Amino acid sequence: MKKTTITTIAALALTTTLALQVYAKESDKKDAKAVSAEKKEEKKERLFQRFRDLFDKSGQNNTHQVEIISGPTAVKMRNGRVPGKQWQATCGKYRFKLTIEDKTKMPLETLIKRIEELPMPYVRACEVVSDIREDGVAIYSDLNGAMAHGGKGYINTLPNAPSVVIAHEVGHTLEQAARESDSKLIEKWTSAIEADNQSVSGYADSSNTEDLAEFAKVYCVCYNAGPEKLAELRKLSPRRFSIWEHILMKAPPPQRSWTQPLWPGAAPRSEGVTDNEKITDRSKGGHPDRAAENVHKPTLTIHLPSKASASGAAVIICPGGGYSRCVIDKEGNDVASWLNRIGVAGIVLKYRLPRPDGHVYGHEIPLMDLQRAIRAVRANAKNWDLKPELVGVMGFSAGGHLASTGGTHYDSGNPEAEDPVEKESCRPDYMILIYPVISFSDAVGHGGSRKNLLGDKPKTKLVRLYSNELQVTGQTPPTFLVSTSDDPVKAENSINFYLAMKAAKAPAELHIYEQGGHGYGLRKTHDAVSTWPDRCMDWMKSRNIRVRPPERR
Description:
Blueprint: H1 3-43, H2 46-50, E1 67-76, E2 83-91, E3 94-101, H3 108-116, H4 120-128, E4 137-139, E5 148-151, E6 154-157, H5 163-179, H6 185-196, H7 208-225, H8 227-236, H9 238-250, E7 256-261, E8 278-281, E9 290-293, E10 299-304, E11 314-318, E12 326-327, H10 329-341, E13 345-350, H11 364-379, E14 391-396, H12 398-408, E15 431-434, H13 447-454, H14 460-465, E16 479-484, H15 492-503, E17 508-513, H16 532-542
Parallel strand pairs: 3-4, 4-6, 11-13, 11-14, 14-15, 15-16, 16-17
Antiparallel strand pairs: 1-2, 2-3, 5-6, 7-10, 8-9, 9-12, 10-13
């Protein structure tokens, strides 16, 4: 055989050997990938697959019940400002809102059933999303292609979203609430995913926050199924299980707030009156500013401070509005939030107005509502962690007139009344009056407020009765007053009330600022009057009300 032929054969043999080796390596890689894929597929959706049979019947045997305490109220829903109806509800110790877009025509009972199918610890999320400016658990006709959205301030779903979908959004809501006190929560969850080496679902693999929300869904059905299933879930994913239970059980509670009717059933003298309440949204620059007119169903919106900071004191806030409207945010809910930050309960009274469209109530009605509010707060003091001897009133503008009327026209309650609320005294323990209308005299009084409360030609006796500087006695509650020299509601309203208090030897403190005008509320301005909350806080301390400086925002 020729040498060249031998060389060629050897080269071919070597090439074939190398090719076989490469092929073998590639085959090994493919086999390894196949094994890895099989393992990944085996791992993928393992938790969902393991507990899949629990989903359809989850929560159907729960015994806790949702109770509707007020509503429906017509609202503009936060997401898109579409018209809807809103209810105030309770379930166990939790208070929350349920809101349904009108367009969906979804029965309230359907939404209630879905809430009742959640484990009781999950219902806490309903309270977290029920801040005074939020809609609670809300049903929309469209969510831009999604079935639901959840976060610290909202749980929004479509009408066909079952309770397990709400459970997913509960995961997002409580996770975001818990992150406010634990900035490394998501880092811990990411480590838990790696340590558990367990997929929840294919959808959960997209992000660590979705993994958490999907785990919340699985935990929900296992919780409803009983201790055995919950123990099985713990064994399969111990690190996630531990963190989620911490979020669910140990996360700090939100600011506690809810709205409830002032009177049981129809308010006195409102029986049979058509409800034509109107809310006008005047918000600008991110500052909420709503005004309520034609109020026939008066309410209390209770804002309780955290238990750690609570002083036990409560202030019933009477918003202004010239007795033609109630400015419920700027002179109501905003003020309640400030009071909460210094450890005081803020309770906003949305009171009936004397002359709503198509009806005339008369001058007694606003005072009747305020007196009921004071009695109701005292009657509920134990339930709300309040001290019945520290219930004050606060009023702005015409709300200041109502508050000062409450402080000069009161009784000690009716011990024979069947209603326990009516047994309580309606005398406030202190008053805080900010740019108040107090007098209805021709020289000092605010003509618009007087006309709206008393009518066009009130009798002199009635004008004197509601000129509260003339009603001061030694028993008039201690009072803090603020006015400015350039206020169209004359500063003499505050000055004359202060002088009457001094003459009666009743405690009072007066602050008159040069500039500031009217209607500033708590809004910061360049004028010195914007420091009035600090002066008020000093005064409250002097009255032995244990307040604390608010955290800077």
